[in-house]
Amino acid sequence: MKPQFLKGIRFADLTWAGAGPFSTKVFADFGAEVIKVESATRVDPVRLGGPFRDGVPGLNRSGYFASRNTGKRSVALNLKSEEGREIVRDLICTADVVSNNFGPGAMDRLGLGYEEVRKIRPDVVYLSMPMYGEDGPLSNLLGVGMTISAVTGLMSLTGYDGGPPLGPGTHFPDHAANPYHAAFAVLAALRHRRRTGRGMKIDLAQVESTINCIGPAVLEQAITGQEPERLGNRSAEHAPHNVFRCQGEDRWCAITVLTDAQWAALARTIGAEALAADPELATAAGRLARVDEVEAAVSRWTVEREAEDVMAALQAVGVPAGVVADPRTLMERDPQLRHRGYWQHLDHPELREATYTSPPYRLDNERVELMRPPLIGEHTDEVLSGILGYDAARIAALRASGTIEA
Prior knowledge:
Blueprint: E1 10-13, H1 19-29, E2 33-38, H2 63-68, E3 73-76, H3 82-93, E4 97-100, H4 106-109, H5 114-120, E5 125-128, H6 145-151, H7 154-157, H8 172-196, E6 200-203, H9 206-211, H10 216-224, E7 241-245, E8 252-256, H11 260-269, H12 273-277, H13 284-289, H14 291-302, H15 307-316, E9 321-323, H16 327-332, H17 335-339, E10 343-346, E11 354-357, E12 362-363, E13 366-367, H18 380-386, H19 392-400
Parallel strand pairs: 1-2, 1-4, 2-3, 4-5, 5-6
Antiparallel strand pairs: 7-8, 8-9, 10-11, 12-13
Keywords: Transferase
Pfam family, one: CoA_transf_3
Organism: Teichococcus wenyumeiae
């Protein structure tokens, strides 16, 4: 199903890299017309980043770019030229939303800042996504997923006791916090415009957005004045609470005991009768005090078994457990994802058939059907003629002058 819930909404989308394009992809997947304004000379860095089909780099061969730009149309322009900026202004006149994730001042230098844009489209919804927001002592600093993870405190929480901060394994701000907060804000602004006729500017600070997703760690400091410790996969409240090595190469199972009854069930299952009978271990406080001993007993049992068998045995007695899956396992062997039709396969002129993640829900029991991502500049002529009404001679002249880059 290709839902058309947002049909009739048009984006002049100047976002690039990770968080911005992911936020506008949400709208494209639901039927909005997202026109990605990009450059073939100052290329979106994600187009230049892998993984590439067959390991061969190319502007249209990045799986990362493809996953973040499904359903969009691409227009390739030289925005350093006045003619290129004039095309964007013409496009904005027809757009409901103008989006960017540049640093403060970048859009103003292009003559496309909010005050200029609202002169030509008074009811525009204008999304800006700088790292620190558009004002303040640090507003001119730039950042990417890793640096945002650092300055928000996220990295201070991930790592092991006595060790350095570690990244969360992916650019979490780019893939979760910032895109979805931006989408929520745009939807709210569009609803406000529908009710009042007034547009607005959204100044989304990616640092603030990421802090919102950290969870109770900030509250711990606020309420107790104590900094949370880095515990790796352990917990300050429950034990055992960790990942345990299983039989086979790099095979693990996560096990979490949240109640004393679950501990008793775990101890019986692993054959640790002495630990099960030890009154000191009957409470979480006691198990935390002897966590190394407890984890060693669990490890002796798990290391002799397949991870799937460990998970099944513990879940059968009410103990939360889950195999630590890798991407191949998820894509090729996970029966639940296969049953729900989570993975989608799209044909592409250069990527050929590739696998994509679906939006994480079904609507009336149907998946949101994705449309393939664009080649760079693939829709330039189509947009300039079909939306802006430029004739063939004008388009040819713009291409000859280098204003149209692809």
